[in-house]
Amino acid sequence: MTRRRRGRPVNPPIERASTLLVDDAAALYDPDIETYGRGGLAVHDALREAFVTLEGAAACTLAPSGLSAMTTAILALAQGGAHVLVTDCAYAPVRAFCRRVLPQFGISTEFYPPRIGGEIAARLRPETALVVLESPGSLTFEVQDTPAIARVSAAAGVTTLVDATWTAGIAQRPLALGVDVAVHAATKFASGGSDVFLGAILSREAEHGARIARFARACGLAVSPDDAAQVLRGLRSLPLRYTAQDRTARALARWLEGREEVAQVIHPALESHPDHALWLRDFTAAAGVFAFVPAATDDGAAARFLDALKVFGLGFSYGGFESLAVHAAPQIKGREQPPALSGPLVRLAIGLEPEDALRADLEAGLEAAAGDPGRT
Ligand SMILES: *Cc1c(COP(=O)(O)O)cnc(C)c1O
To answer: Across the beta sheet with 83-87, what order do the strands follow?
Structure first.
C-alpha cells in the first residue's frame, strides 16, 4: 500500500489517556516526565495557552466547571483561620459555598456591598486572605470599582479574585486592572454551545498560578479532553459571537427602556445605569446579558412574561447561541443586602437569533405581563 505524506492538523490531537507509557524503568519516576493523564494532555495545554493569551495571564489551571474553578481558587488562596470578603452580588452558588462549606475549613466569610470601592480598606483584617469580586454582579449587574478594590487590597497584602465570566476575556482585562486571579465559567461564552462544563483559573503572577495548580492537582481535578476540545473550538469564534450578542442586546435593552410596560432596564452600557461611568472607564464591550423590571408589580407579572415567550427558552445560563430568560427572585432574596427593585426581576441572555424575532417575542411577553393579573 502506498501512502501519501500528510500535513498537520490545525488543532491539537484529542488524546484520550489515563496511563501515559514511558520508555524505560528510570522514566517511571522522572519528575520531568508526565506519566498520568489526569494532569492534562496536548489539548489541555493548547486550551490553557489560549486562555493565558486571552487574559494576559502568567498561568492557567483548568477545572471541570465554572463553579469548581471558583471554589478551587478560593480554597487554594485561603487557609484555616482566614477571613474572606465576598461581594454580595456574587453568583448564588459561590455565595452558598462560602456560607456552607468554608466554615468546615475554619474560613469565615463576610459579604460586602458591591459598590464599596476603596472603602473596602475598612473591612480588611489582619487575617483577611482574599477579596472576591464579580463585576458586573450576577443578575443585578452592579459594576464594581475593580482598580480601587485591587489597589487597596494589594497595599494590605490581600489577594484578589474575580469571577470574570460576564467579561469573557473580551469586555475587560481584570488582571491588567490589578486583580491577582480571574476565573471564567467557560461553560458560558468560551464554549458558546450550551453543551459542556469547564472552568479556567488565570493568575497574573506565576506564584499564585503554581499555588492553585498544586492545589487542583492534589485534589484530583481532571477535565475531559473532549470537553477541553469543545471549549477550544468555541474560543476561536468567541470575539465574533460576543460582539454580535452585545450589539443585539444593547438594541433590545434600549427598545425595552422605551416601553411603558417596563419600569427599569439594568444594563451597564446604558446611560441610565447607576454605574455607567465606571463601565465606560473599565470596559470596552458588554455581554449580551442584562435584566429588566416590568412595570406590573404583582408577583405573577414575571411568570406571565416568561410563559408568553416562544423564541427565548426558559432556562439558566448565558453565552450560548440561544436566547434564554429567567426570573431571579429566589437568588436575590438570598442576598445579604438585596437591591431595592420596584417589581420582579427578569434576566435575559441574548443569543445569536435575529434581533427582530427576539423583539417580537419580548413584545408578546410584555403584553402578557401587563395584562390582567387575575388571568394566567
Ligand atoms: C455559570 C456561572 C458560574 C458557574 O459555572 P458552571 O460551569 O455552570 O459551574 C460561575 N460564575 C458565574 C458568574 C456564572 O454565570
So the answer is: 59-63, 199-203, 181-185, 159-163, 128-134, 83-87, 108-112
What's the mean pLDDT in 103-125? 98
In the structure, what pLDDT confidence band is assigned to residue 372 with cuts at 50, 70 and 90?
Answer: low
Residue whose C-alpha cell reads 413584545 in the numeric block: 363
58 touches 51 (CB < 8 A) = no
Q: What is the pLDDT of residues 44-85, one digit of tens each?
A: 999 999 999 999 999 999 999 999 999 999 999 999 999 999
The pLDDT value given to residue 373: 62
- The Cα–Cα gap between 176 and 204 comes to 8
State the Cα–Cα distance between residues 325 and 373, nearest whole angstrom: 20
Q: Is 310 a catalytic residue?
A: no
Active site residue 188: yes
pLDDT tens per residue across span 311-334? 999 999 999 999 999 998 877 888
Decide whether any atom of ligand 1 lies within 6 Å of the 66 Cβ: yes
Residue 6: CB partners within 8 Å, gap ≥ 6?
Answer: none
Do 140 and 332 touch, CB atoms closer than 8 A? yes
Is 91 a catalytic site residue? Answer: yes
Q: How far apart are CA 344 and CA 326, in angstroms?
A: 11
Q: Is the CB of 188 under 6 A from ligand 1?
A: yes
Look at residue 198 in the predicted model and tell me its pLDDT. Answer: 98
Given a contact cutoff of 8 angstroms between Cβ atoms, the answer to whether 174 and 147 are in contact is: no
Rounded CA separation 10/161 (Å): 34
